[in-house]
Amino acid sequence: MEQILSDYLHTHSFTHFDLKAVIFDMDGVLYDSMPAHDKSWQQTMDEMGLRHLPHEFYLQEGRIGQSTIDTVFQRNLNRNATDEEVKKIYARKTELFQQYNSGKILPGAAEVLEYVQANGLKPVLVTGSGQPSLLDRLDTHFPGVFTPQTMVTAFDVKQGKPHPEPYLMGLQKGGDLKPNQAIVIENAPLGIKSAVGAGIFTIAVNTGPLPDSVLTEAGASVIFSSMEKLLETMPEILRLTQTISI
Length: 246
Ligand code: CA
Known about the structure:
Strand content: 5-15%
Number of domains: 2
Distance between the termini: 15 Å
Largest sheet: 6 strands, parallel
Strand order of the largest sheet: 3-2-1-4-5-6
Helix content: 40-55%
Radius of gyration: 18 Å
Shape: globular
CATH class of the largest domain: Alpha Beta
Bound molecules: calcium ion
Number of helices: 11
Structural class: alpha/beta
């Protein structure tokens, strides 16, 4: 772990970490919601007669809805979806998601958030989701952890993941932070690209069906198989960020 953190500092020309915030992705990091997202996307596209690829919606995870829809449209119809089509498809996908979503949080997620807060770090949320009543749901499961001032959602950004904008805005919401003042917890390749593009040390938790290599290629510095495994290593990570300097 020490070497991995040192490598990050070297690559980004920082002498040390000055950790103030931990930035969390939501689906597949805090919530066990990706199977329901995947199933809802697949069924929506099947109903439209649009072909999709194996694990496509895991590979596309983190994009805003319109971008995912356009990708499928380009493959099938060689054009982007119209605004009306996007609205209709996203509405159907959202309807199915609400039907399939268990609402379960991932084991270890609440404990990681607690650990972060107990160590004086600010939890920030960066999600490509634009689900209604997002904050209410978060506040039910993780009371008092996130506020509108510490959240970046699909409504806040012009360019979704994999563009760096969501995580750059996450740094702003963390308190106008520099990249060495935060770390990111992500599960999806495009989310990892976004965070790495923003220059932030990025930890992957591989809670889905994609091979680890996809997350490494996207730029993750280290991969854990679950939030529980990450929780076990959090003390070491925080200790090292306070002691390493190059
Ligand atoms: Ca995610």
